[in-house]
Each structure stands twice: as C-alpha cells, then as structure tokens.
Specification:
By secondary structure, this protein is of the alpha/beta class. Helices cover 37% and strands 17% of the residues. The longest helix has 14 residues.
Amino acid sequence: MELFYRHYGSGKPLVILHGLFGVSDNWVSFARSISSGYEVFIPDQRNHGQSPHDPTFNYFALCSDLHDFITRHKLDDPIILGHSMGGKVAMRFALENPEMVKALILADISLRGYQRRYHHLDMIDAMLAVDFTKTETREEVERLLEPKIKDFHVRQFAMKNLYRRERSGQFAWRLNLDAINMGMDGIFEGINSKEIFKKPALFIRGGNSDYVKYEDYDQIYRNFPKADIKTIEGAGHWLHADKPDEFMKTVVEFLKKDDL
C-alpha cells in the first residue's frame, strides 16, 4: 500500500508514526522543529488521513506498510518514532526487522495489552452517528460530537479527521471508521515476542498517563535491553501536545547520543 506522507528537512532519516485516530498533521510542528538535522517522514497509516482505505486493519498489515514505505523511499537505518498505536507498530517492526532500524522512540506506549477505553468507544460511536447530509458547518459537526466526546481537546483531535468532498462539498471523515472499529480489539493486543532489539530505544511516558506503568518496565527491558525510560511530568497520553517543549528536549537529548 502506498501511504500518503509529509516530508521535511534533510539528514538522518526519521519516520514518525501517529496513533489511533491520528493523522500526519498532528506531528507537523514537531517535524519542522527537528528537521534542521533530520529528514523527517510522517506517513498517514492505512485507514487514516489521506492514505488508502482497506478492510484489513491489524499490526501485520501496518508493519507490512512500514516495510514497504522504508523500502520504497530507500531509507537507510531510519530512526522510528511512534506514538500509542504507532509505537506498537514501531516495536513490532523493530523486533521483526532489527537490521532495518537504527533506534526507536516510543511515546507513551508499552508492550502489554490494553482494554478498549471508553473514549475510544465514544469517539467511534459519535463519529459514526454524524449525519453529514444534515450538517453544513464544522461547528455543527462539533456540536453533534460533544454529547459523547465531552473533552474539548479530544474533540478537536477527532475534528482533525474532517474534510469536504471535492465534488459534493459534503463533509466526511477521512478515517475508515468501519475497518478501524472491526480491527480495534487486535490493535489493543499486547506484544509477546522472544525477539530482542539490541539497539537504542527511548520510552517516553506521560506522568499523568497510565499507558506505561512501572510494572511494564521488566518486559520493556527484556525485549529492549538498551531502553531508556523517561517521564514527562504533567503530560497525559498526548504528551507531545501537552508538553511540546519538554517532549522535544527529551527526544533531542536521546538523539545526541554517540551511538546515534
């Protein structure tokens, strides 16, 4: 599958993988800031953003897409940064293809399995329920989302996926919500692998998030023995948006290491 992507800068290749319901646009500010020393690629993963839709939505397909992307763009030893679902893709890919990855940066995600959370279910339900034949403005769409997506920031995150169709001018979601909904349980599965990624890996956890717990550390170090785990206090799951300066500083300090 040929993924849509955004491209910034020049230098060592850095691939950024967004999370579930995300789009490449979520990472543009970070990419521009770091692009003075890196060639940054931000693909929209399948069924997200401007990339193709496909009924298959699982980690095997997502990792295959990443393999094709790295090969197609002839990226030599890229560093891969992944947030949430994107981090799971990055970890699985690196464990299976260590020779194709120079280092990993994992933003607020661990290897364990997660249960579907209420905000995922509410977001899917709310977005599927929007009748675009009866909406003419973005404000109307947002009002329809508000009863189930009460958090303003999460609602704005969902609204990033809204666009107008060229021919009809009618609003639509860029997400393939049906495929994502069908594959959701698999996306929350854990990684149970005996493979070891022996290269540098940075795990950045949000201090206000429970996605990376202290009890996850043993499994992290088993699969990623060179892992460095950092906490950004006051940040939630979307730590790169909550604390952008601290997130950038943590990433840059990691990238300045001699072996990178």
